[in-house]
Design a protein that fits this description.
18% strand; 10 strands; 43% helix; globular; alpha/beta
Length: 244
């Protein structure tokens, strides 16, 4: 059998509620891909789930990578280790991908592009969410860093050593920065496949409130002045001990 063109890695911890809808969107994108469904391999990197995440992934025909270290960087790397695609792609389990995702990545990932991301939109909007989103957009425009479905060539991922597992948060930002540094001497840049944005879950806004960034971030900044480990503690409570 020929190797797949794409491997899509989905890190997942207790995602039995969101994973099915993501996989529905992945199935649609596979059917829409000009290279055919068999060109896309789907891997769920189960990050020590205690619910039905693993069973759902297997029932839906996904490969499953077991990753015990509770760090999203470790989950991404664990999925990549069993991937066989030419192009590695990564998305979170609470997202839904666009039907044209893989075609859009093919269009963007030229010789002048080292990798990049599709970008996202939110599943619901409110004044608080819109203001939060708007504040982040200038950083995306200025740096070229984005989220959604992140993509790169396998050989470049391996050269970088994957995601930095010492980082509990912002490992995706660090990876894209490293990818940009890798491509710069070759005349390559980061690309954005924004014709195929993912739809991101608003569950953090549902849990903490639509204006919570403006409440939590100043509090975190103040705590960092007296406790350098405040970011790690915040990450543990905000991302690694979810109510699910």
């Amino acid at each position: 059998m020929p190797l797949p063109r794409f491997s899509l890695v989905i890190p997942a911890y207790n995602e039995e509620r969101c994973l099915p809808r993501l996989l529905d969107s992945v199935d649609q994108a596979k059917r829409s891909y000009a290279g055919g469904e068999s060109a896309i391999q789907v891997i769920v990197a189960d990050n020590a789930s205690t619910d039905g995440t693993r069973a759902i992934a297997r029932e839906r025909g996904c490969l499953v990578a077991s990753v015990e270290k509770r760090a999203i960087a470790a989950a991404r790397n664990g999925g990549a280790r069993i991937a066989t695609g030419e192009i590695l792609t990564f998305t979170d389990a609470d997202m839904r991908i666009d039907p044209l995702t893989f075609d859009a990545i093919d269009d963007v990932l030229t010789e002048r592009v080292v990798g990049g991301a599709t970008g996202t939109t939110l599943e619901r909007w409110s004044p608080g969410i819109a203001v939060t989103f708007a504040l982040m957009l200038p950083l995306v425009w200025l740096t070229g860093l984005d989220t959604g479905v992140v993509f790169c060539r396998r050989e470049d991922f391996e050269e970088l050593g994957g995601y930095d597992e010492s980082l509990r948060v912002a490992e995706d930002v660090a990876f894209l920065l490293a990818l940009r540094r890798l491509g710069r001497p070759r005349g390559q840049k980061l690309g954005r496949a924004t014709t195929a944005k993912t739809i991101a879950s608003a569950r953090k806004f549902d849990e903490y409130g639509d204006w919570h960034y403006f409440r939590l971030m100043p509090r975190l900044a103040a705590r960092l002045l007296v406790n350098p480990r405040a970011t790690e503690e915040f990450a543990e409570n905000y991302w690694y001990r979810p109510k699910r």
